[in-house]
Amino acid sequence: MSESGLDLDYKAAGFSKRLGFGRRPALVIIDFCQAYLDADSPLYAGVEDARESSERLLRASRAAGIPIIHTRVEFQPDGANGGVFFRKVDALKCFIEGNPLGEPGPGLEPQSGEIVVTKQYASAFFGTSLASTLTTLGVDTLIHAGVSTSGCVRATALDACQYGFVPIVVREAVGDRDQGVHDANLFDLDAKYADVVSEDETLEYLHGLD
Fold first, then answer.
1. Residue 10: inside a domain, yes or no?
2. What are the pLDDT digits (tens) for 130-182?
3. What percent of the chain lies above the pLDDT cut of 90?
4. CATH number assigned to the domain comprising residue 160
5. What is the residue range of 73's domain?
6. Is residue 195 part of a domain?
7. Is the Cα dihedral 153, 61, 55, 93 positive or negative?
8. Distance from first CA to last CA of the chain, Å, rounded?
9. Contacts for 9-17 with beta carbons within 8 Å, 24 or more apart?
């Protein structure tokens, strides 16, 4: 079945309905750190274009004055607070506290007043105060950028949906180490849990909030 045929098949079955942007958005930059950008890192993913897109979204979000959340992964030296996840993926040692690979990518550094969520698992919601923070801020829409599409982006978007926030995943601003995996996860997110939209559409929306 061709891709267009697959799209039609899903839509005929009742998937892929558009949720649309809400009135009170926030931006979340998910784990976009040196571990995915340094060619010598075991997690290097070749996602420089997604970093540039994320930086443009970040600038537009700051100009629009919406809440901005940055997530980072950090484990204690023995990895005990990473549980089974840390045991499963050896590359997570990149995120042991103090490792420079855990630092934000260039242009994505948090500014004063922006929220930083430190996590140990894939979803930015799991084991953190993110849901209550967004509720307190009156947020109804969460715009997603970051890495990886199949991992922490997907998990965060799914939980955003489950917590009642409209998940917007910006296609150009998320990335993965394999294009096929990236595309498959974006298709599934758009079909079932989130709106996958273009950077241009998102920037137009953000500029309209100025």
1. no
2. 999 999 999 999 999 999 999 999 999 999 999 999 999 999 999 999 999 99
3. 95
4. 3.40.50.850
5. 20-207
6. yes
7. negative
8. 43
9. 10/191, 15/191, 15/192, 16/190, 16/191
pLDDT tens column, 15-61: 989 999 999 999 999 999 999 999 999 999 999 999 999 999 999 99
Active-site option among 33, 94, 152, 161: 152
Residue 7 falls within a domain, yes or no? no
Under DSSP, the state recorded for 28 is E
Locate 3 and state its tokens.
């891709």
- Number of neighbours of residue 8 by Cβ within 10 angstroms: 13
Residue 9 lies in a domain: no
| 123, 159 contact by CB (below 8 A) | yes
Query: What pTM was estimated for this model as a whole?
Result: 0.95
Which phi and psi angles does 37 have, rounded to 5°?
Answer: -115, -20
Our answer to whether residue 33 is catalytic in this structure is no
Do residues 32 and 72 touch, judged by C-beta distance below 8 A? no
Count of the separate structural domains present in the chain: 1
Enclosing H/E stretch for 153: none
Contact between residue 174 and residue 50 where contact means Cβ atoms under 8 Å apart: yes
Locus of tokens 């958005």? 25
